[in-house]
Structure formats: C-alpha cells, structure tokens
From TrEMBL:
It comes from the Bacteria. InterPro entries: Glycosyl_Hydrolase_73, MGlyc_endo_b_GlcNAc-like_dom. The lineage of its organism: Bacteria, Bacillati, Bacillota, Bacilli, Lactobacillales. Pfam families: Glucosaminidase. This is Glycoside hydrolase family 73 protein. Residues 48-198 form the Mannosyl-glycoprotein endo-beta-N-acetylglucosamidase-like domain. Keywords: Hydrolase. The keyword Hydrolase applies.
Length: 205
C-alpha cells in the first residue's frame, strides 16, 4: 500500500515538472518573439537625403578624420569618410542613430554593444544575421576607435597615401564580407571628391 502511494506521488511530481517546464519554455519563446529585431539598415526613419544633408554629414566626419591623419598618419580621411557613408547611409542607419557607430564596427567598446540584424555574404549568398555592434558614447570616440582598428588589424601600415591601396587592404584582410567592398568605397571617394580631404590633411600649413 505504501509503495503504491509513493509511486503515485512520484508520478504526480514528474507530471508537475513536465507541465512547469512547458510553461517556462512557452513564456521564454513569447518574450523572444516580442523583442524587436532592429536592422542596421532600418529604413523606418530614413528619408531621401538632400545634397545639403549629405554635405553636412561629410563635413561632420571629415573634421575628426583630417585631424587624426595629421596626428598619426594612419588612415586617409577619404577612406574614413567613404566607409562612414557606405556603412551608415549618410547617417540614416539605426546603428548610427542608436549606437553612434558610423562604420559598422562589431564587438564591444568598453563593454558596450547593441545587437542589430544585418546582412552578410556567406558562400556567395547574402543572408540576414544578428550581430553585436560596438556602442559609442559619441561620434569622436567612434572615429578614433575606427582609426586604431583599421591601422592595427586591417591596413597595418602608416603613412599610406593611396586610398586605392588602403581600400584593397581592407578588402583583402576581411573588414567586410562584401566582395565588392573596395570598389564601392573607391566609387564613393571619386563621386564625392573625398580625396580633397587627403590633400587638406597633407597640406596642413
């Protein structure tokens, strides 16, 4: 008799455990589903950029970019500006607005990051993935961090005066998965005459 009672109690406990686990799993799925998936290229707040707005964005990035190159001769301003244009779509991306990250730099900055949905090229195919991107306190910090990152990990040379060589090194050393990344940067540099900022940095007197 006692054995039967203990067996029934054990069965009831097991059933209760299964039910509780199911409730927890269902609740977790609902929470995950309800979390917004923010895209790096989020277009919800994006409007067609005017020439005036594009020029203002270029000036905003060019100042610190020129100053950095004059101080350390690491990355040409034209490349810095072109990357900011391409990665943030002239400052209209969610990553730029929410994380002050103009360059699509992944990882953490002093422990700070934000997750966004982005596109990567894998085996020749464009796929959507979730990734953690560095969150900066201000744009100056983002530009300085980007400057160090490019020099130390991707360009690995100082006083490099050819923007085409610089963009090629970014492509070869894996800054982006897009196989046309260097070509896109070169196109932006020519289209918006960004090499004038290289001359400005070199002719500082």
């Amino acid at each position: 008799m006692h054995k039967r009672i203990w067996w029934i109690l054990a069965l009831l406990i097991a059933v209760a455990g299964v039910v509780l686990a199911a409730v927890v799993i269902r609740t977790h799925r609902q929470v995950v589903t309800q979390q917004p998936r923010i895209s790096v290229a989020d277009k919800s707040n994006r409007q067609k950029m005017t020439i005036k707005q594009k020029d203002a964005f270029i000036r905003k990035i060019s100042g610190p970019a020129v100053k950095n190159f004059r101080q350390n001769r690491r990355v040409l301003p034209s490349v810095v500006i072109a990357q900011a244009i391409l990665e943030s779509q002239f400052g209209s991306s969610a990553l730029y607005r929410l994380a002050k990250n103009p360059f699509g730099v992944k990882g953490r900055y002093h422990g700070q990051s934000m997750s966004f949905e982005t596109r990567e090229v894998e085996n020749g195919h464009s796929v959507k993935v979730m990734a953690a991107f560095r969150k900066y306190p201000n744009y100056q910090s983002a530009i300085m961090d980007h400057n160090r990152l490019l020099h130390d990990k991707f360009v690995r040379r100082s006083n490099l005066l050819s923007y085409r060589t610089t963009t090629r090194l970014l492509q070869e050393n894996g800054y982006a998965t897009d196989p046309h990344y260097a070509h896109k940067l070169n196109h932006l540099i020519v289209k918006y005459r960004l090499s004038r900022y290289d001359l400005e940095a070199l002719n500082e007197n």
